[in-house]
């Protein structure tokens, strides 16, 4: 293959990875800055409006658990294309206030998320950590852009539905890019056997860990703007605060995987990330108006790092790209079902107590518990015994032991 064509193919691969990530969070994060307008138009309570965030995440979990079967039936190329089409249709439906849009969009996001980890493991074999960081950063960047721009679009068109529906445009762009410039790689073994994970304790532990260390993101997306709206901020100001949080998510999603590439033990970086979350939630609880940007920056940094590092940790457990993808799909499936409870629980606590204070306490205690649990993920615990069902074979120097 000519050098110029090879470089163009690699650049196309990175561009596609970014385009996919940018489309996976606007379906969720565009809701929160417009929540008061939506509640005013629909009569929803805080608890019921939480389903606008929770339902897509429930779909993300359920579809991810079916990811292996969907991959075998559809294949990577058609599966990702279908996911982007579902996101596009969900955004189009939101222009007409279709209640089914949350389910449709969540299913589309889940389908793509179930396929991307194996795609990364195969396409970026020597740069898995870097690719996962860029994917995570673009995913969070898309969520931040939606939180920032949706109120402006809604104001410009004098209708909140426009602020939700406008995100069909990047979905359409990504769909065209995916179809014109597909990832290069060997033909998939669509009939290859699947690994069994439902009775695997380590797989369940990874899923629980993934779900709980990332559940703060869904609560922040759903309720951070609403929290500051209650403190007297405008919709634009509160949405910009969520976008500010995203800047630090992106920084962490790029920085921490780059550091992770230098060592095989993920625990020190995970401990730093969880500590940042705990301090940020504590500041949000005790001094919300004194230094909101500082607390939100710490939360964003911790959440951005935790998403990328937890996915890398999961991929560490399997050397084969397809098996790693199956494990990642299982972990994300169970994890997102846990995530889905977070905004609903926060809304329920808000209805029960009249404030978000109790919800911030729950998040602090959850993060501290996961900080203790981090100790069990020593590399020796998943690399020492070839008989363990989620243990990879010995990985040679320069392979995924340093790049995953």
Gist of the model:
The protein contains 17 helices and no strands.
State the helical fraction. over 70%
**Count of β-strands:** 0
Separate helix tally = 17
- Going by helix content, strand content and strand pairing, the class is mainly alpha
Name the quaternary structure: single chain
Give the overall average pLDDT: 81
Indicate the radius of gyration in whole angstroms: 20 Å
Shape: globular
Uncertain residue segments: 184-191, 384-404
Strand coverage percent: under 5%
Biggest β-sheet: count, sense, barrel?
Answer: none
Order of helices and strands: HHHHHHHHHHHHHHHHH
Distance from first to last alpha carbon:
27 Å
Structural overview:
- The protein has 404 residues and is mainly α.
- The protein has helices at residues 3-22, 26-29, 35-42, 46-49, 51-65, 67-94, 101-123, 128-156, 160-165, 168-180, 201-230, 235-260, 267-286, 292-316, 321-353, 357-373, 400-403.
- Helix 5 runs antiparallel to helix 15 (321-353) and helix 8 (128-156) packs across helix 14 (292-316).
- The longest helix is centred in the last third of the chain and has 33 residues, at 321-353.
């Amino acid at each position: 293959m000519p050098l110029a064509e090879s470089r163009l193919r690699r650049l196309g691969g990175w561009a596609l990875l970014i385009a996919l990530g940018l489309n996976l969070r606007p379906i969720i994060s565009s809701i929160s800055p417009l929540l008061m307008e939506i509640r005013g138009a629909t009569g929803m309570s805080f608890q019921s409006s939480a389903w606008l965030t929770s339902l897509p995440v429930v779909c993300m979990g359920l579809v991810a658990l079916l990811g292996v079967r969907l991959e075998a039936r559809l294949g990577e190329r058609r599966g990702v294309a279908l996911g982007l089409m579902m996101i596009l249709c969900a955004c189009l439906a939101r222009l007409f206030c279709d209640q089914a849009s949350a389910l449709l969009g969540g299913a589309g996001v889940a389908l793509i998320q179930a396929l991307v980890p194996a795609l990364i493991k195969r396409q970026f074999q020597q740069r898995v950590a870097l690719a996962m960081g860029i994917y995570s950063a673009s995913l969070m960047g898309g969520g931040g852009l939606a939180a920032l721009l949706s109120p402006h679009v809604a104001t410009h068109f004098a209708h909140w539905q426009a602020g939700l529906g406008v995100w069909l445009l990047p979905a359409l762009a990504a769909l065209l890019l995916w179809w014109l410039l597909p990832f290069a790689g060997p033909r998939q073994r669509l009939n290859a056997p699947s690994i069994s994970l439902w009775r695997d304790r380590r797989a369940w532990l990874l899923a629980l860990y993934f779900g709980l260390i990332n559940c703060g993101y869904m609560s922040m997306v759903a309720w951070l703007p609403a929290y500051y709206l209650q403190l007297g901020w405008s919709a634009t100001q509160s949405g910009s605060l969520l976008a500010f949080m995203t800047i630090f998510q992106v920084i962490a999603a790029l920085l921490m995987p780059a550091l992770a590439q230098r060592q095989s033990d993920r625990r020190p970086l995970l401990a730093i990330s969880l500590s940042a979350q705990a301090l940020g939630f504590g500041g949000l609880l005790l001094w919300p108006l004194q230094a909101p940007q500082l607390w939100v920056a710490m939360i964003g940094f911790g959440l951005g790092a935790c998403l990328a590092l937890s996915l890398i940790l999961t991929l560490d457990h399997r050397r084969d790209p397809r098996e790693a993808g199956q494990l990642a799909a299982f972990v994300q499936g169970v994890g997102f079902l846990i995530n889905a409870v977070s905004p609903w629980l926060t809304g329920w606590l808000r209805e029960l107590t009249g404030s978000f204070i109790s919800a911030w306490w729950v998040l602090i205690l959850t993060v501290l518990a996961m900080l203790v649990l981090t100790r069990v993920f020593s590399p020796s615990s998943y690399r020492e015994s070839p008989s363990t069902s989620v243990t990879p074979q010995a990985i040679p120097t320069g392979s995924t032991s340093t790049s995953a």
